[in-house]
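Team,

Forwarding the record for the chain on the shared tracking sheet. I've put the sequence and predicted structure together so nobody has to dig through attachments.
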Amino acid sequence: MIKKIGVTIGDPAGIGPEIVLKALANHPEIYDAAYPVVFGCYKILEAQRKRAQLDVQLINLSTLDNLPKIRAGVIPCFYPENISQIPEPGKISVAAGQLSYQFIKHAVEQTLAGKIDAIATAPINKEAFKKAAVPYLDHTELLAKLTNSRHTMTLFITGSLRIFFYSRHLAFKDIPAALNKNDLTTSLSHCHKYLMQIGIAKPRLALAALNPHGGEGGMFGNEEMDILIPAVQAAQENGLNVKGPIAADSVFHLAKEGHFDGVLSLYHDQGHIAAKTFDFHRTISMTMGLPFLRTSVDHGTAMDLAGKNRANETSMVEAIKAAAR
């Protein structure tokens, strides 16, 4: 059954408009499983289409009721407001931050109304969000607030590797203080539930360690002994198949080799480095715990590439396909 996938273009001054249009222009197989609706201003998308010399047709929709029949190379786009000026590619601005927020907001509203089945997002720029006084740090926080979701988790998928994140955007010095036994136990329980939701009947989980060699019995830190091991034991007592903490220089390789169905990473770069080294362009991000599915690229706005027609759309393609699956 064809699924209606809302595709947000992210920050209009970044590579989002380019990778969205390239994904839909150059990969007709997407249309076999998805009816894509691009949430982005027609003026911005048309300017990008001309810049990239793409042979596609844009349809400007004012409503998502009674969607027209489409085929590969025809791209419906939806943004109900008018804009006076197109943000300049590669420039962080208030206007770009406001627009990227509006694209997401409209996509969420239409999905909650049942007119879209899932959302695939291009990257936003946190500096532009801040300039525009958007009161959210990132996609995950914004989506949680717009949907009143109490517990969300980021899941990276690349090949056979699945990585959850206990924390996201924290200064490195603040990571140890953010570790909490009860929160970790709860997070492991959510990882188990979310793996079942994507079709893994009996999930095998691993918890990544914080310190080198898992702390070496306290030689390199006490977090493993004081927090991580008790959290794993509590999860095991709750009936979960969890191992760890396992040293971070090994746990992701073990998961890739099939020993675990998922790894709970403790902080942003710990899991991002593993996934992006394994396959940078085909890593996708999923936000679990929302009332609908959201997938995303795993990279940023790449302002240095914006407007130059050099961005790689592979991760956007994979995110749309994953949403449809």
